[in-house]
Specification:
heterodimer; A: 7 helices; B: 203 residues; 8 helices; elongated
Chain lengths: 126, 203
């Protein structure tokens, strides 16, 4: 592993730990120190990411169902991001699986899911 | 006899004859180009190749009579060293590259594998799709630009598969810019939203 790559990975890990500690100790539902969604403030409609801060907080406290209620897409996105990262930076993912997850059809499906989620959560008030 | 250029499993090569394509074991995922087409097309869009694939799937050996039925009108194809659009490799036995011609013909005689090796060395890697950042910006930045970045990732991958490396590169850059714009807009606008929230809370 090259030095710059090790630095990158450590930087990523440190940022992740700091962010996790912040959202573990602060409750976004009541605290005034967490950023609020701009899209929601301006338009009154939820964006695809609304509720992910509360979802992180719930998840770190082990409340899986609450996290699902705040932002279900977030729970879907975390493993997807993890898969892409592992595929890009490690050799843990078999190349066949890597081919499938980076296929343009897979990307299209993810894109369609985001848009569907965005529309449905505003229509159904999820 | 018509000659085909092929983009199969991320490798571009050509010109190849129908028999050579069959010997390579191409499948439906390949893209082809031949003289007279504007751009690369799916292999199934070329009637004689689609027929060949169907015959291969059915386990039928292509009879030589079938090959001779092919359109013979493109006699000029063999004379003109025309290259497909967005072709990155060297023509395997192009008339233009005289010094190597003998060598290429020799490889040609020894089987198709030398083509694959040669094409692989010259096929560029897929430009980054930026999917990780596209999804992160979709979740974190409140702005719908992350969705645009996912669309650009789709385009990047699709054009790469089709062998259109220049367009793939371009859409990879578009995706990166969409993500940067999304993050910058998010960082600029979030304090504004918060201050309005504070005003509402106070007032």
């Amino acid at each position: 592993m090259s030095k710059s790559r090790a630095v990158k990975i450590w930087f990523f890990v440190v940022v992740l730990v700091v962010v996790a500690f912040f959202y573990f100790s602060i409750n976004p539902s009541t605290s005034k120190y967490v950023p609020r969604c701009v899209f929601l403030t301006i338009t009154g409609y939820k964006c695809p990411g609304c509720g992910s801060q509360r979802a992180v907080h719930s998840l770190l406290h082990g409340n899986f169902l609450d996290a699902l209620r705040y932002n279900a897409f977030f729970l879907f996105a975390v493993p997807v991001i993890a898969l892409y990262l592992l595929n890009d930076y490690t050799k843990l993912i078999p190349s066949k699986v890597g081919e499938v997850i980076t296929h343009h059809y897979t990307i299209a499906v993810i894109g369609i899911l985001v848009v569907l989620w965005w529309v449905l959560r505003n229509v159904c008030d999820w | 006899m018509r000659r085909y250029w092929i983009n199969f499993k991320g490798k571009q090569m050509g010109p190849l004859s129908l028999e050579e394509l069959q010997a390579m074991g191409v499948d439906k995922t390949a893209y082809v180009w031949h003289s007279g087409l504007d751009d690369w097309v799916k292999i199934t869009k070329v009637p004689e190749l689609n027929e060949m694939l169907e015959n291969m799937a059915a386990g039928v050996e292509t009879a030589t009579s079938q090959v001779t039925e092919l359109p013979q009108g493109d006699a000029s194809d063999d004379d003109v060293p025309e290259l497909p659009p967005n072709y990155y490799g060297q023509p395997s036995n192009a008339m233009g590259s005289a010094p190597q011609q003998g060598g290429y013909n020799h490889q040609y005689a020894s089987g198709g594998n030398s083509y694959a090796a040669q094409a692989a060395a010259e096929t560029p890697e897929c430009p980054p799709t930026n999917m990780v950042w596209a999804i992160i910006s979709t979740i974190c930045c409140c702005w719908p630009l992350g969705i645009l970045a996912i669309f650009f990732a789709y385009k990047t991958k699709k054009f790469y598969k089709e062998g259109n490396y220049q367009k793939a590169e371009k859409f990879s850059e578009y995706g990166a810019w969409a993500i940067i714009l999304s993050i910058v807009l998010g960082i600029i606008s979030t304090p504004l939203a918060c201050s309005r929230y504070f005003i509402q809370a106070l007032g």
